[in-house]
């Protein structure tokens, strides 16, 4: 099944917001779970709770006439495309109404980048989503986690626990991403890029 990008019309007020991460207590505070952290903060700020669903945990956040379905896949990062494909189909949404939030090794810690298309940048979750949807034209918000590791230690780094200093910055990072998602869903990609894509 091939998902193609469509122009959002006036009735396209529903969005699927996916945070990438790994399930399990051992991964909660790891760098690879930045997507989960953002969605947890989003749900808490919206006074709602995640409930078990197929391929992940979901909740719904209403915002300015829009309905944002938040999804934390239970498929592990490398198979995230399965959850994304299922929920796009279930909600009957085009790829233009999908936003994926994930970590990024290629950006300094805390730097944010919103793009509406592009490569997977070496991120296995984005790679699987692209392969599963058969398109790279979907919006993603990447959260920099830095790359302070020696060659051969990439896996240990991304699955490593955030430092105390990094953890202290997470609430502000989450707030910025949440604001970016809301802006994207109400004012469009350009406004959201102006908000998020600033030099750190």
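Q: What amino acid sequence fits the structure above?
A:
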């Amino acid at each position: 099944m091939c998902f193609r990008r469509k122009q959002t019309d006036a009735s396209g007020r529903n969005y699927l917001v996916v945070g990438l991460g790994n399930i399990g207590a051992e991964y909660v505070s790891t760098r690879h779970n930045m997507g989960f952290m953002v969605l947890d903060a989003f749900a808490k700020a919206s006074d709602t709770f995640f409930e078990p669903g197929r391929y992940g945990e979901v909740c719904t956040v209403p915002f300015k006439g829009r309905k944002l379905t938040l999804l934390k896949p239970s498929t592990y990062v490398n198979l995230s495309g399965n959850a994304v494909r299922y929920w796009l189909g279930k909600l009957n949404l085009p790829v233009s109404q999908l936003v994926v939030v994930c970590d990024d090794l290629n950006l300094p810690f805390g730097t944010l980048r919103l793009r509406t298309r592009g490569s997977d940048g070496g991120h296995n979750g984005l790679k699987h989503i692209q392969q599963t949807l058969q398109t790279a034209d979907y919006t993603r918000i990447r959260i920099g986690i830095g790359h302070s590791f020696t060659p051969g230690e990439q896996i240990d780094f991304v699955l490593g626990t955030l430092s105390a200093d990094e953890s202290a910055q997470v609430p502000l990072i989450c707030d910025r991403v949440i604001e970016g998602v809301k802006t994207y869903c109400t004012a469009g990609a350009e406004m959201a890029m102006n908000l998020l894509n600033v030099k750190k």
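Q: And what stands out in the fold?
A: The domain at 14-196 is CATH 3.40.50.1470 (Rossmann fold).
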